Amino acid sequence: MTTTTPQSGYTGICVSPGIGIGRAFVYRKGTPAITRRRVAGHQVAVEVERFRNTLHQAGDEIRRIRRMVASEQGEELAQIFDAQLAMLQDPGIKEKTEALVGDKLYSAERAYAQTLAELKASFGNIENAYLRERVHDIDDIENQVLMRLAGAEVQALHALRANTIVIAHDLLPSEMVRLERRQVKGVVLDIGGATSHAAIIARSLRLPTVTGVGDCSRQVSSGDLVVVDGNEGRVHLRPDHETERRYRSQLRRQLRRVRDLDARRDLPAVTRDGLEITLMANVDVPTEVQLALDYGARGVGMYRTEFLYLNYRLPSEEEQFKVYADIVESWAPHPVVIRTLDLGGDKLSHVLDTPPEANPFLGWRGIRICLDTPELFKTQLRALLRAGACGEVQILLPMISNLDELQRARALLEEAKYELRAEGRSFAEDCKLGIMVEVPSMALMADRFASEVDLLSLGTNDLTQYTLAVDRGTSKVAGLYEPYHPAVLRLAKMVCDSGRRAGTAVSICGEMAGDPLATALLIGLGLERLSLSPGLIPEVKEVIRAISAAQAREVAVACLEMRTGKEVRQHLEDVVGKYLPFWHHGHH
Ligand code: PEP
Ligand code: MG
What gap in Å lies between CA 140 and CA 119, rounded to an integer? Predict the structure, then answer.
């Protein structure tokens, strides 16, 4: 049978599990075509009126989205839209556009596009990443206004219909957080790997997501039926009846299973032989706190603070203090591990004025940025110390690669304490300090450093990327990105052993902590504290309750003997399959 729009399938990378079925919304960045139409002299007033109305409508829409994001995601994220509103209402832009309509008889579209083009050209010459980033805001606004003027239906990421599958070439983390989660059933991206930050957000929003599917976004039209299979990494465009039926029944099973797991959310995370595992939540955006409480997390194991900086401006000490204190209070008496700013890499390099780098993941990133901009760093440290007076805060330093960085960070922490003391403010005098172990040098040296800190937290996302020399966000090499590579496991073991000998707590907060396949292995390595996306807690807990610590140790010993990640995976599949009857037909 041949039709003009045949069924087709894609295989990509499993980023966030689950089945999603819905109608495609193809998100294309860029601006609509502009006709070179002129207006007749007597139509100028009408054209100007049409332009003004359009600005009003676009403004209403942005304010609506702002309210929605503020109530769903919090005020910090909502502030992204203030910059857009300011741009939309800028009197200079308005006057210039209207003058072009009046003097040159340009259509409103053409006049507005030309005005913004001049503005963008003036920004383009500026060697300032912050201002260069404003160009994206202008593009966004321009797109919305021109679409309206052209009479086209404005569909944006935050105003989607029910049961939508979002398909795009790529999405920024800031775009991902704007997805209205009630409407969106899945996400498909042409590029990207499993631990890119957009992927991490997809997982925390529990959106079935597949990435690395080549030119999928160009083969699909908005409105097409799409199935996203986040378990197998498959995308079906315009599936036939049989495929659709099969996936609908899988989706029903998935929903039943989620309900089953939810019902058991209050059971303790204890192995069959009585070892208690602490399951904590990774939190990327403030709204996840509620989700994490709902899933029975025992505190926050890693709060990524980059999201406070999404509105392109540095948050003040007071603003930060308020956010941290809120989180800490909602978790008391459980601890909240807050990671200091980890900008750079693929995350928000535009916040600071950084020229593009050839290897951003090896460049000015994380603690390196903080130590080079001590005032920015100290503002955050002061806010963290003060929040520590409202509950238990533990400070976690990202990207530490040598002892010197740790010592300099500690000196700044002491300086911040000294200042707060002098100012007579209340703060946590004995605030615990930990480091992320995500650069191989730190794992290799863990036996020398373990006693210097209160917590070693394994960041397997970066540890994998740096150990295997595989960019975590590039789909071309995603096949080489293997967290189960025995080289990564050996490094993890060194960290666990060093922590145990030094009496220093060891935890894991990389995505591996949320993979039920890894649970036995991690416990076997000696990890008793896992920090993961809240939505994955029930499933990981189920594995913990099905195994014994003794079995887990055998699993770890066996894996450490293996030569390839593939062998490790196969072994872990067998282990989970043996202990969990649901495994083959439920999760995978
Ligand atoms: C990691 O690298 O494993 C980690 C948890 O940090 P991030 O994913 O934010 O780089
Ligand atoms: Mg990291």
Answer: 14
Largest CA distance in the chain: 86
Is 462 a pocket residue for ligand 1 (Cβ < 6 Å)?
yes
- CATH 3.50.30.10 correct for 4-29+157-261: yes
pLDDT tens column, 90-106: 899 999 999 999 999 99
Q: Looking at residue 87, what is its pLDDT?
A: 84
The answer to whether the beta carbons of residues 454 and 466 sit under 8 Å apart is no
From the alpha carbon of 509, which atom of ligand 1 is closest? 5
Residue having the nearest C-alpha atom to atom 10 of ligand 1 = 462
Q: Are 263 and 541 in contact (CB under 8 A)?
A: no
Residues in CB range of 404: below 8 A, 6 or more apart: none
The pLDDT assigned to 130 comes to 55
Atom 4, ligand 1: which residue's CA is nearest? 459
CATH number, domain 266-579: 3.20.20.60
- pTM here is 0.75
Give yes or no for residue 342 CB within 6 A of ligand 1.
Answer: yes
**Dist. CA 350 → ligand 1 center (Å):** 19
Q: Rounding to the nearest 10 degrees, give the CA dihedral for residues 519, 523, 529, 531.
A: -20
Dump pLDDT digits (tens) for 351-366. 666 778 888 899 999 9
Q: Which residue has the tokens 């105003």?
A: 159
Q: CA 545 to CA 580: how far, in whole Å? A: 10
Judged on CB neighbours under 10 Å (0-12, 13-18, 19+), 489 is buried
Q: How big is the CA angle at 537 (ends 199 and 497), to the nearest 5 degrees? A: 90
Catalogue the active-site residues.
197, 509
Cβ-Cβ contacts under 8 Å for 567 (sequence gap 6 or more): none
Which residues of the chain are in CATH 3.20.20.60 domains?
266-579
Please check the confidence at residue 14 and state whether its pLDDT lies above 80: yes
Residue 327 binned pLDDT confidence (cut-offs 50, 70, 90) = very high
pLDDT of residue 587: 45
Return mean pLDDT, the chain: 88
Q: Ligand 1 center to residue 208 CA distance, Å?
A: 20
* Per-residue pLDDT reduced to its tens digit, 154-199: 556 766 788 999 999 888 766 777 777 788 999 999 987 776 767 8
345 CA closest ligand 1 atom index: 10
> Residue 366 Cα, ligand 2 centroid: separation in angstroms?
9
Choosing among 3.40.50.880, 1.10.10.10, 1.10.274.10, 2.120.10.70, the CATH entry for 41-149 is: 1.10.274.10
| Per-residue confidence band for 2, with pLDDT thresholds at 50, 70 and 90 | very low
Smallest-distance ligand from the CA of 302: 1
Greater pLDDT, 210 or 129 = 210
Evaluate: CB of 284 within 6 angstroms of ligand 1.
no
CA 474 to ligand 2 center in whole angstroms: 16
Give the helix, strand, coil percentages of the chain, each rounded to 5: 55, 15, 30
User: Atom of ligand 1 at shortest distance to CA of 302?
Assistant: 5
